[in-house]
Design goal:
Strand order of the largest sheet: 2-3-1-5-4-9-10-11
Order of helices and strands: HHHEHEEHEEEEEHEEEHH
CATH topology of the largest domain: Alpha-Beta Plaits
Largest sheet: 8 strands, mixed
Radius of gyration: 24 Å
Shape: flat
Number of helices: 8
Number of strands: 11
CATH class of the largest domain: Alpha Beta
Strand content: 15-25%
Length: 365
């Protein structure tokens, strides 16, 4: 993942940026442009924990110094001075953690794509299970979801489904939680189509893209080839008598996006452009990561999307994430949207990897 320059900024620079952002947000003219106001609001929310931790550390250091000074005259202050001094290392660690270079996409909304893999109908049914899992997790988080495109199968599975996930609040960013979900998800269970009761293994792929603002990715209309065709339903049957489905090809990169979920050609075109912008932004950021020799790349951040990332074992009610050796026996709850534990484990591994490559105390950051 690409990291912008503010990620490696010093504490003083971040404090100054916080003050500038706070001033900008108090200007009514800024809120006339909703895109700018939203971007500043997200950045303000991202900086707030750093400012809070810094102020708390400064206060405790000052109080400890005062208590130590008073202890020279009154021994009753000695215990208070020791208690305050014992808090300083913990607060320094917290600030150091907050100063880890940030993923600039953490504040973004998400385009989530789930595609059935090998395994035929069983894989498509599993893709449907993953879709419901993410929709229920989004509901728990208070996020908004919108199905942009959905290719269903006769048995009620999903060959491919694309979902936009958006946060209603800058304090609950989507990418920072869902960015670890990309990869191959494997299921082990007895398929509904299996008459002998044998356990089968199949898989579905998940692709998570930060949703791009129009200003972030400029698309030249001359670079697009747009084809329209008649949409089809499960089993290839026609469900629309008009050419409302849209296929957009970005000629310079060869990126192709197809949409047929909406009855309106215009709506499908707009949805396809949203996904196209997200894919082009992800491509540009991956290229930037490859070009940046000093980019931070933890084991979690650089995991090959072609690798198996997680296994869902129904017989044992077990979920296992292979990147961080996470294992739990509450698969039924996870599939009902209880994803926080595994996401927290991945986030913690990411932070620890970044901390292990960091040096120097928080006070000198």
């Amino acid at each position: 993942m690409a990291h912008q320059s503010d990620g490696s900024a010093t504490l003083s620079q971040l404090l100054a940026e916080y003050a500038e952002t706070e001033t900008a947000l108090s200007d009514p003219a800024v809120h006339a442009d909703q895109s700018t106001a939203r971007r500043l609001g997200r950045r303000f929310a991202q900086l707030a924990p750093v400012v809070t931790a810094s102020r708390e550390l400064e206060r405790v250091r000052a109080d400890a110094a005062t208590a130590r000074e008073l202890a020279g005259e009154d021994a009753s202050f000695a215990a208070e001075a020791e208690e305050l001094e014992n808090r300083i290392p913990e607060l320094e660690d917290r600030l150091r953690e907050l100063l880890i270079p940030k993923d600039p996409n953490d504040v973004k909304d998400v385009i989530l794509e789930i595609k059935a893999g090998e395994g035929g109908d069983e894989s498509a049914l599993f893709a449907g299970d993953l879709l419901r899992m993410y929709l229920r997790y989004a509901e728990r988080q208070g996020w908004q979801t919108e199905i942009l495109d959905d290719e269903e199968t006769d048995l009620g599975g999903h060959k491919s489904v694309t979902v936009a996930v958006r946060s209603r609040s800058v304090e609950q960013p989507v990418w920072s939680r869902l960015k670890y979900e990309g990869g191959v998800h494997r299921v082990q269970r007895v398929p509904v189509t299996e008459s002998q009761g044998r356990i089968h293994t199949s898989a579905a792929g998940v692709l998570v893209l930060p949703e791009a603002e129009e200003v972030e990715v400029e698309i030249d209309p001359n670079d697009l080839r747009i084809d329209v065709y008649r949409s089809s339903g499960p089993g290839g049957q026609s469900v629309n008598t008009t050419d409302s489905a849209v296929r957009i090809t970005h000629v310079p990169t060869g990126t192709v996006v197809s949409m047929q979920n909406e009855k309106s050609q215009l709506q499908n075109r707009e949805a396809a452009l949203r996904v196209l912008r997200a894919r082009l932004l992800a491509h540009a950021q991956e290229q930037a990561d490859q070009d940046a020799s000093d980019a931070r790349r933890s084991q979690v951040r650089t995991v090959d999307r072609s690798e198996r990332v997680r296994t869902y074992n129904f017989a044992e009610n077990r979920i296992a994430d292979h990147r961080v050796n996470f294992k739990a026996y509450n698969l039924d709850q996870v599939l009902d949207g209880a994803l926080d534990d595994v996401i927290d484990a991945l986030t913690r591994a990411d932070i620890e990897a970044a901390l292990s490559s960091d040096a120097g105390p928080a006070s000198g950051a």
